[in-house]
Amino acid sequence: SLTDSPVILKILQNWVPRVSHYFDKEHYTYVGHQIVIQESIEHLGAVVWPGALALSQYLESNQEQFNLKDKKVLEIGAGTGLVSIVACILGAYVTATDLPEVLENLSYNISRNTQNMDIHKPEVRKLVWGEDLDEDFPVSTYHYDFLLATDVVYHHTALDTLLSTMVHFCKPGTVLLWANKFRFSTDYEFLEKLCNIFNTTILAEFPESNVKLIKATVREN
């Protein structure tokens, strides 16, 4: 139910002042590591949105509740890769996915920020919501402990396929963590649909940023 009272949090200013003069690089610090993210102004998926900051912060602060060590984690709509990088640092086996045109920047950020660490090597793969899921990610082979999604719901036409993608990957035992800035009625309608399918809890709210962090799991009969 959504009746449990969520924790009220503030997105901390985890980025450090830029030393470089390039407009396209942001420096963050999570789990004791400085993370440098290259953004791209060409694609919405290549900018760090507030949901990614909120989820990164939450995963860092709640490692006992959500222990990612040696867990299989899939991020959909990974964008710049910040959340996937944080999950890697926390010890997860990470697969970061997004649209083909975002993958180059995503791969660059992930490899650059994880290459010299003693962690599981992350994987970057193409995933178009609702397309070729049974072929590319057959349920018999792919089972994830965590499905991560940040700011995937906004004013776009792929909300139904996004939902079907979440359903495809959320099996018994999978925890979906979805952080989103709530701006439009469509965002709340999507949340309502999610609640109709999954057991859903709002874990945290970041009122200053209008971000909600939602946990969803499969209803087991």
Automatic annotation (TrEMBL):
GO terms for biological process: methylation. InterPro entries: Methyltransf_16, SAM-dependent_MTases_sf. The keyword Isomerase does not apply. Keywords: Methyltransferase, S-adenosyl-L-methionine, Transferase. Transmembrane segments: none annotated. Gene3D superfamilies: Vaccinia Virus protein VP39. One of its GO terms (molecular function) is methyltransferase activity. It comes from the Eukaryota. The keyword Methyltransferase applies. Pfam families: Methyltransf_16. This is MT21C methyltransferase. The lineage of its organism: Eukaryota, Metazoa, Chordata, Craniata, Vertebrata. The gene is Mettl21c.
